Amino acid sequence: MNRFGILIASIALGAWMCGGTWFWVCKVKLLCPSEDGGLITQAISSTPESSRVDATPLTLFKDGKPLWAFKDHIRYAKGDGTPIIPIAIVQELDSLAHLLSSNPDYDLEIIGLYSDQENPRTNGQQLGLARANAFRNMLTSHGLDEKRIISLPKAMSLASLLDQTDSARSALSLNLVKAAVANIAVDSTSSGTGGTDSLTSEASESEPEPQAIIAPPSPRNLYFEFAKDGIPLDDDLRTYLREVISYLNRQDGKKVQLIGHTDDVGKKRKNLNLGRSRAQTVANFFQQLGLEAGKIEVDSKGEDAPIATNKTHAGRQKNRRVEIIIP
Predict the structure, then answer these.
(1) CATH number at residue 282
(2) Domain limits at 146?
(3) Would you say residue 269 has pLDDT above 90?
(4) 149 closest CA partner among 92, 93, 106
């Protein structure tokens, strides 16, 4: 081979080596700078790419926008609430704790996703709560304040929850949500200004500072089906329960009163017990969501305090309820 041929072969070999190196680093390892100057990273997973539900790691949202993402996923076997947690998730819990401490006016909402078709023999809501609470317990064991973590269940379709290996890959949703401190009203009666909006450059030493009052969530009725004590949970009720727990966790001495009611069908003593059973069901649910038992009061008035006539089906349905009251 002459010198010209050797030169061409050397150039071709060098180009092949450079191209191969670029392909390995940028396309396989994803370590080349992205267009915005950052590094493109990829979570390592043992799950085949073709069987994944999506390629998005477990992500923390704030005000509906992605704030921060783990480097991997938490998985659950079909119908199981026990998490399979990669070491990468555990190693990043300190970062999550720092984010929570740097957002003191926000609570962490953990939503456990489930499908009623995963295990027809179990209560779907309980499966969702088990998934959320398993992660919640792991966070509190790493020092996160349990009073700022709220667990909630949410139903999903089976197809959107499970991958081709029948494991739930995206069964958790993490959200920073505005805490009860958002509902603040200023008590002008203690400010010594007579309720006016005037401002002064200096506060008088004899006048106390205006007191911030956190308004509790409004009372609400939960309605029940005839002779049943299960809780029908929708997005609106899920938001309300989160607000109640957030408020009570931040207010010492405050409690929620749960008062059970029934229609007048059946014996009075039985209805009194049924009303208490319904109120206790709500109390148990609050505890599963993260509220201390000492902040819950349970009572029943049975059929003695109707809010509608018991002579019609619609009226009886309104009377089968549990009142949620925060005095």
Answers:
(1) 3.30.1330.60
(2) 50-178
(3) yes
(4) 106
DSSP 210: P
Q: Which residues contact 99 (CB under 8 A, 6 or more apart)?
A: 60, 67, 68, 176
- From the DSSP assignment, how many helices (H) and strands (E) are in the chain? 8, 14
- Residues 158, 66, single domain; the answer is yes
Tokens 């049924």 belong to residue: 274
Alpha-carbon torsion angle 269, 272, 278, 283, nearest 10: -120
Mean pLDDT calculated for residue range 77-84: 87
Band of residue 31 on the pLDDT scale cut at 50, 70, 90? very low
Strands (E), 247-294: 256-261
Both 122 and 171 in a single domain? yes
Last residue of a domain, one of 151, 178, 205: 178
Q: Express each pLDDT in 208-244 by its tens digit.
A: 544 455 678 899 998 877 666 566 677 888 888 888 9
* Threshold 0.85, pTM exceeds: no
With beta carbons less than 8 A apart as the criterion, state whether 83 and 75 touch: yes
Looking at the structure, tell me whether residues 255 and 310 fall in a common domain: yes
pLDDT of residue 54: 47
8 Å CB contact between 93 and 138: yes
With a CB cutoff of 8 Å and minimum separation 6, the contacts of 276 are 260, 298, 299, 300
**Arithmetic mean of pLDDT, 32-47:** 34
Mean pLDDT in residue range 125-135: 88
Q: Report yes or no: 150 and 290 within 8 Å, Cβ to Cβ.
A: yes
CB 309 within 8 A of CB 230: no
Residue range 7-22, pLDDT digits in tens: 677 777 767 666 666 5
Question: What would the two tokens of residue 6 be?
Answer: 């050797």
- In-domain check, residue 71: yes
Into how many domains does the chain fold?
Answer: 2
Which residue matches tokens 């191209």? 19
